Amino acid sequence: MTDFFQGIEPIRYEGPETDNEFAFRHYNPDEVVMGKTLKEHLRFAVAYWHSFAWEGGDPFGGQTFLRPWHPQDDYANAKVKADAAFEMFEILGVPYFCWHDADVRPEGDSFAESRKRLEEITDYFGEKMEETGVGLLWGTANMFGHRRWMSGAATNPDPDVFAYAAASVKACMDATHKLGGQNYVLWGGREGYETLLNTDMGREREQAGRFLQMVVDYAKKIGFPGQILIEPKPQEPTKHQYDFDVATVYSFLKDFGLETEVKVNIEQGHAILAGHSFEHEIHLARALGIFGSIDMNRNDYQSGWDTDQFPNNVPEVALAYYEILKAGGFSSGGTNFDAKLRRQSLDAEDLILAHVGGMDVCAQGLKAAAAMLEDGKLEEARNDRYAGWETGPAKEMLAGDLESAAARVEAEGLEPEPRSGRQERLENLVNRYL
Which terms are listed as keywords in the entry (predicted)? Predict the structure, then answer.
């Protein structure tokens, strides 16, 4: 036990009228929506890196947070950090958490020492998980922070770095498997390039594809039952990312025969950086059959940077969960808060309340999405717009050739009249549920 969260009681649902800021107004984990509880629908997870490993620095200033587990280069402090983390998981009542290896164990002087420390903290996590009932949504390897990764991991021009990446992923997959993780994520923060003057894109892409094939093969070899996920991300920190967005990742998976093996973990902030909306990326992943999980956060729209703020926009969140519900909801995936405090938010209470607010926003959004889906008016309007394609002649045209399609125009005297897309009417409809 630690005293970091001393005096903060477990957060309970008190309803929208409560004045208690340390209470849920909208997230009642036992509330049933569309046949499942909110806890089952949302599958909340806390991100270990932002909540416990991040020290409050930014590109213009260093550490602002002073935590009981600082400095983070000591294994004893790693256990203190774990104690505090699991205390917060229990206060919030979240069912899951997520980690990178570098978040949970201090870096060793050698790979063998780092792996040993990961194995030790994995054992300690196992004890804490047994005590609390909190599960692991996913684990992953940090292959972007250390200077060894400055030119990429799987895409690195140095084959020794490729080997080090393989060893890192193997160790993290072993730890994730041991802890009963439901997914394993690969996030290629440095898998891209800064300039073509020193880059062979074809070679690097082949390396990345082969690496992912190795990961999938190893997961099968050890009997890992979870889902392998790729997290798309554009631009930052690498100027040209190979995993830019859902469409790019799907093309990559198809090229290497992995489209039925690997799905995507989609982050709201990354979608925005790619020039898309969150619901766009989820919709496309659903249409392509590769939707897996989400990282929930938001960006500052003035900064143009991946600011990883906690969600506070119910309409945005509702449209995202609408697409998730249309996909059948989460299976092994969930809602991971890949979100961090502002560097001026120093207190333990800030960390709790940030999650409380985010969980309430997600609950509001999901309930609005469920109401939209159950009401059916939005789907009815969409189906009506495409109704012509359900007719016999339209289906025959798609099954035929260009000449037969062209022949219809003169034979039937076709002069199509544009039809309204009714965007404003549909936006008004969505607002009724919010």
Answer: Carbohydrate metabolism, Cytoplasm, Isomerase, Magnesium, Metal-binding, Xylose metabolism
